[in-house]
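Q: Okay, next protein. This is Ribosomal RNA large subunit methyltransferase G from Gallaecimonas xiamenensis 3-C-1. I've checked the sequence twice, so it should be correct. Can you predict the 3D structure?
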Amino acid sequence: MQLYICWKLAVPALTHHLSLLERYPPNPQDDLQAWDSADEYLLQSLVASQLDPQRPILVLGDQFGALSCALAGSHVSVVNDSYVSHKAIEHNLNRQGLAQVQLLSPLDDWPQQPQLVLGRLPKQLSMLEFYLAKLKPLLAPDSLVFFAGRDRDIPERAEALLSRYLGPTDRLLGWKKARAFVSRSDGKAPLPQPAPLSWPLEGTDYQLVNHANVFSRQSLDIGARLLLANLPQGRFDRVIDLGCGNGVLALMMASQYPEARYQLVDESYLAVASAKANMAGNLPTVAADFIANNCLDGFERASADLVLCNPPFHQQQVVTDHIAWQMFKDAFKVLRQGGQLWIVGNRHLGYQIKLSKLFGGCQVVATDRKFIVLKAIKRRTS
């Protein structure tokens, strides 16, 4: 079996589906395409007829299904840290009538001896190191590893990490502001998987574990710090930490209200794993669920007393507020009448306007030069 890298050769059979892809979750105000030149580079660099249908293909970091849809029908496994990306891939495969692929999280078992690995270079070096350390022991001598990314998004040390963790690596020519690297295993013993970062939470006896790719994994982010200094007071039976990251907001609420039930929700599988480790390691008797999800999809209406939220203002590399808006709308649905949504965000994002529109008003709880903490109470049922 031989695979060819022919970056100048367009392969219509692998790229014709790109114009049919949709971003996910759907956003009517969004006219952005669901693929970029790095996806095209990966697909236009393969001669599909040389692939062995009996051997696995491993795809890492496919965002909306550009790679998954092209290779559907082959023995394909797709690894992504994003639950939303998994839903996007399912959506686009179904929309185009294509066979489903195996969807895996970074913590799942990956297929052995893939003939081909196609990967999107993550912006976070910790995620790239995680990928490479887990990938090396799985490679066969003839496995071909192909990573690509947009020039502006490629970590500075990406090529060095590919060589260090895998083996001989070639940098291919740039194309449409994208860059690709081809690696093969050097046959040496794999380097160990870097351990999650762990650090003490100031002012407590708690230790926080942070897997690769978790937001602000090296220290407590300043937005969360402001909310932690102004946590809600009252009676709460069911609390949701929406976009929980490492779970620090729920953890500190649980230290004050240990009898409540907590649901920690994030679209990142590694964030959810971090939150689970932190609750189990610091407050093991607290009742808590840990859920990878798209905001609060599938949650029971009017069932929660409090939602805490430190919303993202980007999806992948695109700055947007539609995810925050979806979080606010989902929180409104899930809160009981009289329930509260507490958020922290950058002051310039103007979240108080959206909350006032949705809840009929909101209150400024705290503010500093950069961040603002807002409280909204559900006073109506619809």
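A: Here is a summary of the prediction. The mean pLDDT is 92. The chain has two domains: 12-183, 197-377.
Q: Noted. On to the next one.
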